[in-house]
Amino acid sequence: MAQTEKKGGLLRKSSASKKPLKEKVVLMYDEIFTTEDPSKCNPRFWEELFLMKVNLEYLEGKLEALDGEELMKIKDNINCLFQHCIQALGEEHPIRVVNALQTLCALIRGVHQKNKSTSGFDIINMLVGFDKAELCMKNLMESLDSLLCAEGSESLKSLCLKLLLCLVTVTDNISQNTILEYVMINSIFEAILQILSSPLSRREHGYDAVVLLALLVNYRKYESVNPYIVKLSIVDDEATLNGMGLVIAQALSEYNRQYKDKEEEHQTGFFSALTNMVGSMFIADADEKISVQTNEAILLALYEAVHLNRNFITVLAQSHPEMGLMTSPTSPVPTTPVTPLGTTPPSSDVISSAELPLDADVQTSNLLITFLKYSSIVMQDTKDEHRLHSGKLCLIILTCIAEDQYANAFLHDDNMNFRVNLHRMPMRHRKKAADKNLPCRPLVCAVLDLMVEFIVTHMMKEFPMDLYVRCIQIVHKLLCYQKKCRVRLHYTWRELWSALINLLKFLMSNETVLLAKHNIFTLALMVVNLFNMFITYGDTFLPTPSSYDELYYEIIRMHQNFDNLYSMVLRLSTNAGQWKEPASKVTHALVNIRAIINHFNPKIESYAAVNHISQLSEDQVLEVVRSNYDTLTLKLQDGLDQYERYSEQHKEAAFFKELVRSISINVRKNLAFNTMSQELLLKEFSTIS
């Protein structure tokens, strides 16, 4: 018997038969694509259609092949198909429901392809017709809501979420997607929360639910009242918020694990051997090849939760086992191809393992630690546009955290100590820190480490000014909290001071190049004022009196950099150029630093001359400092412990609009309906009563 092959909805025998046979479902689609009502000749047409296995490829292809005019001719049949799909969602037979959901996905995607062309007809009119749109969309949303909240099939829930993601991302700019008005009116917010609060549903659908929520929150968020924003801001159910936190933690943890695996692969591979042979000259190139796609969609969800919901802050510190340390299941895990940003859900083994009870032998972690590790990877390389956006979003999230009183309370809590292994960029002049030597410290130390790491590693020609400003602002906000609450943090402040001084040195060395693109005086003023904060209020939050002495030692030791900065800003503030005003602000801000240098330097020189010492040790300089504080006069500077609070709408609207657009395009591009293979669904619903 000749073997039968299937291709593009056609059935043909491998022997040379002249007319290929079409699948029945394809013949039925063809009837829909005529101007006649298909149910005229066959009253059971729609009933039979939803018992047929959907051919997504053929249906979408057929829609895309027609021009706008041709599509308008069959608009009544398209409307009819859409309405019958919605009716089928209320059927008892799951096969009909599955086929209806998949058909709706194909219809929405196919009609969207036409909408991008010059024909200019409206998607809603083409799918349902303006006259019936309100009722049809209400019925659709109610059916999806019922399916998502029902006890039934997980496969159906998955398809419902895929359909909703398809609806939301049908246009690049989601705020121009008029279909979403119906998703606003007929809210599915409670259904999303139910998925996140149930461990089983969360494991299966948490990722899609969180991404869907993040996108819905961004629909016309600046132009009108978005009910999803309002509702997300008042959620206070612990199980739901923890569920959302777990989904985000798992996705970020999966990224961290993939990066670590690639890093280890790199170190043990051929390139590593070659690098060892020829020295460290290739170290930067070697590291550039370690690339795992960033996940902006899940970061956006974290941002919206932190920014909108004060109760979510508690979730950041919620302890769970270190996900990377959990033992993998013995059954093989199917490999998934790498997909672009914001689309790859974490593998189910990571999700299930994270919900195991805490074990005394397993290192505990929390969402904040996972996020800090993720940030340390993403912020290493800001040359790539996606990583630059990711890095910026990480810093915006940290800004929101640094402003929150409760977040600061647990960041600085001495009873909540963690060992946080941040990723550090390979650099020729420093050795890689051993993971085992990391001390257990309050979480704020890891945040400060991350900021110091960024400051040290991004002084380059393509200077990321915006990220540096955000970085310094985060440090400032943390210091304001420490000053206000008199928190004496045991931290290696010298590393921060050294990084800040080197940053000033870099700005001066590259003055001409940088001034062509940036106002470097804004950043210089922020750095100088951080030192002013330490000088003026350091005695209230530095851990010991000797720490305050060390601050003075660093300023005196590196006085040449401050002298050079003063010369530069003085030169520019006395000229009538565009930088006159910003440079003069730095001149005034340097008054106390210059007072310290001018007061102590002669005393140190005198001490050296009297004791016949050509070069003083650190202890000797500190002795001079301690014995001459009483004759030092400093000016009190106002507003050092004040800052402007973060505001998304006024300053970040353009960034978020572009970010959401990018996420929408990628979610749509990678929406995988084929993961819901018909064979699996048929197996699940093998009995049709």
Automatic annotation (TrEMBL):
Domain of life: Eukaryota
Compositional bias (Low complexity): 338-348
All copies of domain Armadillo-like helical, residue ranges: 435-671
Region (Disordered): 328-350
SMART domains, sorted: DUF1741 (SM01158)
Pfam families, alphabetized: ARMH3_C (PF08427)
InterPro entries: ARM-type_fold (IPR016024), ARMD3-like (IPR039868), ARMH3_C (IPR013636)
Protein name: ARMD3 protein
Lineage: Eukaryota, Metazoa, Chordata, Craniata, Vertebrata
